[in-house]
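re: the backbone from monday

yeah here it is again, tokenized this time
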């Protein structure tokens, strides 16, 4: 019996090394980030029995769109040409650089005439989401990474179901991994009311389109093609609720009204088409959206940016890198998960060395320990260059916010980490209006007041075993 086990182990090991021999050249030719290439080569070469299956499960970085919405980007761009802004006409060189790079990377040009409300509190977001749902008369389009099975998730579903019963066309798109429990239990009232529900990229290879790790991390709700809610907030009591609770995570969202909603509508429709093969859903999808007359040139100009493994370029990553390298006065970052690649890390270090005020807020404790440990491995070099790092303490920080000078603000679903930049489907809104940027900056300063600044000398004295754990997580972070 023992010899049989040995023979089976030998055969399995031999097969593993054969696959490793074939896969390693393929990985090198994929031209991943150097860190990701090294991590995969090490995992496959040293532990092929584990590394090879893991690669086939989570190694793919690209997905092809077999179908896109028939209206496509053309319908949204042509219907709002009068509100488009040439990137070179944006009010500063930093904004112009960002706008130009984002447009060249495939994002629609900036659009003006919008009304943008920034939301920082869970009760504000809760009232905004339910209010938009109640106002809908033609359709509601919603997509979220996480829909929690809790009282807030149930209230959200019942609000959608009530509108579906009233004749409003409701379409809800949920990530198959982030919302797996909701997809099995929570959505039935909405389906019974006539609403449509779809899951994005099931994780098991029993489906034609599946992926275990390419996740749709976008958060977006659109009503009647006129108003949109987006940002970093999922649906659940950790993110929002009728009251501002002490356990709620610190997060940031935005409500957008005006011509930019067309660009957000295109993103939803393309994701819906990919998940359902329904390329042209019914409804008044692109109503006439005149600009808000009371908007000054310094308000309401923004650029909607989608990024993901279905695109040849990485617009959010390239826009963020451009902003960091163009900054002249400040770079303020709030992110729950900070695992930069070499280019982003070096751009922050160089900015600090140039005398730019570079500040980074991360949570003192995180819900994803491996990512948290990997991020801490970057802190020594960043602080040595002059980057100020703050640990947010009252609760978990989930905001994804950037403020660059007084010229660019970013709010959306993307973290400053490798997964968001290179694997997830993400949504970012680049703000170019002084008022909106000022609101983001004021909230950032409020978060600084609630945070503990990390002391470089104290941090450098942490035990070597902790450093070893951080650096090990850093090596393998590109895998996940």
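seq for it, each position gets an aa:
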């Amino acid at each position: 019996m023992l010899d049989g086990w040995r023979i089976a182990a030998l055969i399995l090991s031999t097969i593993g090394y054969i696959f490793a021999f074939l896969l390693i050249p393929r990985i090198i030719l994929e031209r991943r980030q150097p860190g990701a290439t090294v991590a995969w080569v090490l995992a496959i070469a040293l532990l092929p029995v584990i590394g090879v299956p893991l690669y086939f499960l989570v190694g793919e970085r690209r997905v092809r769109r077999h179908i896109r919405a028939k209206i496509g980007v053309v319908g949204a761009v042509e219907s709002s040409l009068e509100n488009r802004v040439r990137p070179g006409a944006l009010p500063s060189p930093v904004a112009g650089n960002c706008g130009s790079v984002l447009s060249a990377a495939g994002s629609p040009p900036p659009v003006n005439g919008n009304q943008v409300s920034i939301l920082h509190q869970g009760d504000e977001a809760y009232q905004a989401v339910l209010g938009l749902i109640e106002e809908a008369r033609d359709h509601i389009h919603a997509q979220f990474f996480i829909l929690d099975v809790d009282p807030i998730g149930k209230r959200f579903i019942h609000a959608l179901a009530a509108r579906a019963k009233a004749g409003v066309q409701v379409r809800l798109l949920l990530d198959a991994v982030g919302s797996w429990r909701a997809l099995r239990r929570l959505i039935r009232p909405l389906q019974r009311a006539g609403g449509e529900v779809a899951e994005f990229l099931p994780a098991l290879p029993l489906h034609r389109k599946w992926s275990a790790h390419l996740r749709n991390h976008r958060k977006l709700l659109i009503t009647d093609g006129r108003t949109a809610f987006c940002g970093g907030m999922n649906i659940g009591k950790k993110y929002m609720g009728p009251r501002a609770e002490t356990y709620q995570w610190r997060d940031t969202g935005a409500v957008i009204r005006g011509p930019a909603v067309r660009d957000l509508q295109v993103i939803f429709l393309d994701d819906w088409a990919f998940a359902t093969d329904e390329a042209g859903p019914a409804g008044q999808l692109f109503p006439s959206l005149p600009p808000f007359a009371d908007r000054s040139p310094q308000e309401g100009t923004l650029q909607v940016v989608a990024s993901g493994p279905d695109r040849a370029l990485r617009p959010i990553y390239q826009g963020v890198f451009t902003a960091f390298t163009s900054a002249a006065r400040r770079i303020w970052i709030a992110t729950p998960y900070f695992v930069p690649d070499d280019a982003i890390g070096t751009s922050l270090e160089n900015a600090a060395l140039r005398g730019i005020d570079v500040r980074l807020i991360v949570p003192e404790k995180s819900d994803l320990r491996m990512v948290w440990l990997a991020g801490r491995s970057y802190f020594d070099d960043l602080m040595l260059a002059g980057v100020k790092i703050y640990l947010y303490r009252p609760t978990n920080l989930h905001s994804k916010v950037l403020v660059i000078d007084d010229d660019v603000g970013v709010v959306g679903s993307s973290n400053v980490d490798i997964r968001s930049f290179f694997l997830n489907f993400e949504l970012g809104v680049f703000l170019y209006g002084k008022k909106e940027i000022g609101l983001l900056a004021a909230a950032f300063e409020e978060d600084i007041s609630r945070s503990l600044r990390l002391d470089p000398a104290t941090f450098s004295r942490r035990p070597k075993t902790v450093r070893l754990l951080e650096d090990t997580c850093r090596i393998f972070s590109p895998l996940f």
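The CA atoms of residues 302 and 431 lie 4 Å apart. The longest helix spans residues 2-29.
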